[in-house]
Design goal:
about 180 residues, alpha+beta, 5 helices, about 30% helix, about 35% strand
Length: about 180
């Protein structure tokens, strides 16, 4: 943070997150934002409500970066940095197109809620954890992790939060309640 007054666009962004539509399958929590990435930052942690073995099926984070002077590569005053980690079923984990599918889902979720964005970059990683010894009863688990950043077209960020929450559910195989009600 800086000693200057909080920029109006940053206040608008934070209020839009507070007032955003909520995905009922995702719990949100404000967490300390990273430092030194931008003069103005905020962060939300999220996790799915439906849990397995006392652990959420998916968890993630959405970080808002704001620099009125802009930064190289942002092509705007804001940058959203997001991460999610989700348990996936073994059949899905073996798909050679998993990374491409998850990356496309991220774009789909942003577009489905009307979140305008550009300059999206990121990575998709799949992780296999095998248990041995006394932990063999737990079996193996597969996770997919997506790290992405993009520039929103306006300071109104509510749709971006909803999109990332929807993606969290989609990767964990949870159909958000609002989609069930629309069917």
């Amino acid at each position: 943070m800086t000693d200057h007054a909080v920029p109006e666009d940053f206040v608008t962004a934070l209020l839009s997150l507070r007032d955003a539509a909520r995905n009922p399958a995702v719990l949100l929590e404000e967490v300390p934002p990273p430092e030194r990435l931008a003069p103005w930052t905020a962060a939300l942690a999220m996790r799915t409500v439906r849990e397995e073995h006392d652990q959420p099926l998916a968890s993630g984070r959405l970080v808002v970066l704001h620099d009125p002077a802009t930064q190289i590569g942002w092509n705007g005053e804001f940058r959203l940095v997001a991460q999610l980690r989700s348990q996936i079923d073994p059949e899905m984990g073996g798909d050679p197109l998993l990374g491409e599918a998850v990356w496309n889902w991220a774009h789909d979720c942003l577009e489905e809620v009307g979140a305008g964005y550009h300059d999206m970059t990121g990575t998709v990683t799949r992780e296999l954890s095998e248990a041995f010894g006394g932990l063999e009863l737990r079996g193996s688990t597969l996770h997919v992790e997506l790290r992405a950043s993009w520039t929103p077209v306006t300071p109104a960020l509510g749709e971006h939060l909803l999109a990332w929450s929807d993606l969290l559910c989609r990767t964990a195989g949870i159909i958000p309640q609002r989609y069930l009600e629309e069917a």
